[in-house]
Design a protein that fits this description.
alpha+beta, Beta-lactamase, eight-stranded antiparallel beta sheet, three-stranded mixed beta sheet, 11 helices, disordered N terminus
Length: about 425
């Protein structure tokens, strides 16, 4: 009798314990609210096609490749014009472009990989790897011309990543003659060009460290050789040439097979010709040399410039940006930790970079809606001297890449492209 009562009590207790589990197994979890669908209007995107086509027809640019990803999928792609107008070679979606300062984001990622491995910190002085930066100087204007004064503190890795080191491209009138005498600044194309140099980038940066800069470290946002210096730091901290490190740790894992510092000769016919804008706004073929086509195929192949040296395609660069948008991982390949990506894409310089705009560790950041057209707050991006431009809009799940090679470029195509893309986005912000 007692044993029967005990068995009944046990059955009741077990039923009470298992009831929630059974309910969970039998009833599916309540569905999560779906985010509003992000919709591009087909008719409105057609406006974008027409404008890009007209830029070519009116000879304001030579050719262009535009690519937009939404949540990693191609939402818009258009290639129009000429890779080489004079040779009647049409632009294709896999055209290769000189991306100039779009190189900076990739080199910044390389440095942050080393930070994650404990080989450097953001607070480390640059002189740990480049001795000539141990005691830097600053040029200041005086009543009699120019004075050279000591820097108030050491330049750090973070200064390089945020462009707050005070290092320019050496084309400023106050320092230009000094830089030109050392083969930098005016003697290096527009300052940033090194593809024709028959010396490793670290030799150039060692020499740079002996020259005066234009602002005290941390005092201003100054665009210049910062990421080229950083590229040398990557070489010395990793023990590998910059091209090798980037290939092994970034472009290789991400499948960016058309991203190079110097183009393999077999890909020569895919390299877009550089055009320039004449006084009437028409595209004219740029000359050979540092201020035109550059030495990206037949150059010495010794200077791997982390600030402006790479060539790439729209698809390759979009893969790199999609990795960043996905917080450091793409297709099972983790390049950075999510918190490191957070540092890259958060303003680190206060108001130094301008009204409504900030600067992270390698990217410009939109801080105020309207400061960068219709881009959402939190959008990050930049561009290149040859006219290429990109944005990542995390709020909308967008990666936006516009590739042109136009120097100088008075076409205004990047701004118009961005405006027309956002006007076609009619599904609302998620």
């Amino acid at each position: 009798m007692i044993s029967n009562i005990r068995a009944s009590v046990q059955r009741v207790l077990w039923s009470a314990l298992l009831a929630p589990l059974a309910l969970t197994a039998q009833q599916p979890a309540a569905p999560r609210p779906a985010a509003p669908a992000l919709v591009f209007s087909k008719d409105r995107l057609a406006r974008l096609d027409a404008v890009l086509d007209n830029y070519v027809t009116e000879r304001r640019i030579g050719g262009v490749v535009a690519l937009v990803l939404h949540d990693g999928n191609v939402a818009y792609e258009h290639a129009v014009g000429w890779s080489d107008r004079e040779a009647a070679r049409k632009m294709t979606a896999n055209g290769i472009f000189r991306i100039a300062s779009q190189t900076k984001a990739i080199t910044s990622v390389a440095a942050l990989i080393l930070m994650e491995e404990g080989k450097l910190t953001l607070e480390d002085p640059v002189s740990n790897w480049i001795p000539s930066f141990a005691k830097t100087t600053v040029a200041v204007r005086t009543d009699t011309g120019r004075a050279i004064v000591p820097a108030k503190r050491a330049i750090t890795i973070k200064d390089l990543l945020t462009h707050t080191s005070g290092v320019s491209y050496g084309t400023d009138a106050i320092v230009a003659p000094l830089y030109e005498a050392k083969g930098l600044g005016p003697a290096a194309g527009f300052g940033w060009y090194t593809a024709d140099k028959n010396e490793p980038i670290c030799e150039s940066m060692e020499r740079l460290g002996t020259l005066p800069f234009v602002s005290q470290p941390g005092a201003a946002w100054v665009y210049g050789y910062n990421t080229d210096i950083l590229g040398c730091v990557v070489e010395r901290a990793s023990g590998k040439p910059l091209d090798e490190f980037i290939r092994e740790r970034i472009t290789g894992p991400l499948g960016m097979t058309d991203t190079h510092f110097y183009l393999p000769p077999a890909k020569r016919d895919r390299l877009a010709v550089v055009y320039g804008s004449d006084n009437a706004g028409h595209a004219v073929r740029a000359p050979e040399g540092p201020r035109g086509q550059g030495d990206y195929v037949d150059g010495p192949r010794r200077s791997f410039a982390g600030g402006a040296g790479l060539l790439s395609t729209a698809h390759d660069y979009a893969r790199f940006l999609e990795m960043i948008r996905r917080r450091g991982e793409l297709d099972g390949k983790r390049i950075l930790a999510p918190h490191t990506v957070g540092l890259m894409t958060t303003n680190q310089v206060g108001t130094l970079a301008g009204d409504g705009m900030g600067w992270g560790l390698g990217f410009q950041i939109t801080e105020r809606y309207g400061a960068s057209g219709s881009a959402s707050v939190g959008t990050f991006g930049w561009g290149g001297a040859y006219g290429s431009n990109y944005k990542v809009d995390p709020a909308e799940g967008l990666v936006i890449v516009l590739m042109v090679n136009q120097l100088p470029n008075t076409s205004g195509i990047a701004t118009k492209f961005s405006n027309l893309l956002y006007q076609a986005l009619v599904g609302g912000v998620r």
